[in-house]
Amino acid sequence: GWPIFRFVPTLPQARVEKKLATHNTVFFVGGNRAGKTTTLAQICTKACLGRYSWCPTPAHCTIISLSMKQGRDANQDKIEQFVLSLPYPNVIASKTTREGFTNPIVFANGSGLTINTVGQGWLHLQGAGYNFIGFDEEPPQDLWNEAKRRIRVGAVTKFLFAMTPTMGITWIYEKLVVKAEQVIVNVLFVP
Asked: Which of 4, 72, 86 is nearest to 39 (CA)?
């Protein structure tokens, strides 16, 4: 079988995956080596393969990293582990690799996986419609404001914040936890 289906998640990773079925926004908070980035790549891959009842196929998923360096350093090995190990061209229709980084990836079923960066700014998300948006660390508020408008018409968009909260109480706590903006049905923190 493919590595994505041989992967055995840790208990927190499994809880995140399970809670995305019933929650639109999930926070996976933990320190380094907690498996947050692995979880993002695994969920995006499975969504693109049509493995979730909450995500229609073709799925459009993105992971938003802090920088291209972080995306390349933290995400590329996960992308290689889960996505690039899939048969080409039967499952992966096309992929582009530049400067050691594979992005975007188009699946044979029409699904797509992109990795964006905070440095690209919120304008980079315009015109996109996503089924799943994963934040690899805490994004600026303007990026969140744009991301929540990039939902896929006719489908529910799921958001996963995979982060190590190093900045204390920020806009995420004030806007998403205390005020629970209307775009969020349920918010869950996974320890």
From this structure: 4
- pLDDT tens column, 12-38: 889 899 989 988 888 888 877 788 999
CA-CA-CA-CA dihedral for 169, 173, 178, 183, to nearest 10: 160
Regarding pTM above 0.70, the answer is yes
Q: How far apart are CA 71 and CA 37, in angstroms?
A: 10
Residues 6+ apart with CB under 8 A from 113: 44, 45, 48, 61, 62, 63, 79, 83, 104, 105, 107
Can you tell me the distance from the alpha carbon of 143 to that of 175, in angstroms, rounded to the nearest whole number? 14
- Parallel, antiparallel, or unpaired: how do β-strands 112-117 and 101-107 relate? antiparallel
Q: Are 109 and 86 in contact (CB under 8 A)?
A: no
Q: H/E element holding 100?
A: none
The residue whose two tokens read 């994505």 is 4
Round to whole Å and give the CA distance between 141 and 127. Answer: 19
Q: In Å, how far are 20, 123, 147, 153, 167 from 127, measured between CA atoms?
A: 24, 9, 11, 12, 31
Q: Which residues contact 188 (CB under 8 A, 6 or more apart)?
A: 19, 23, 25, 26, 27
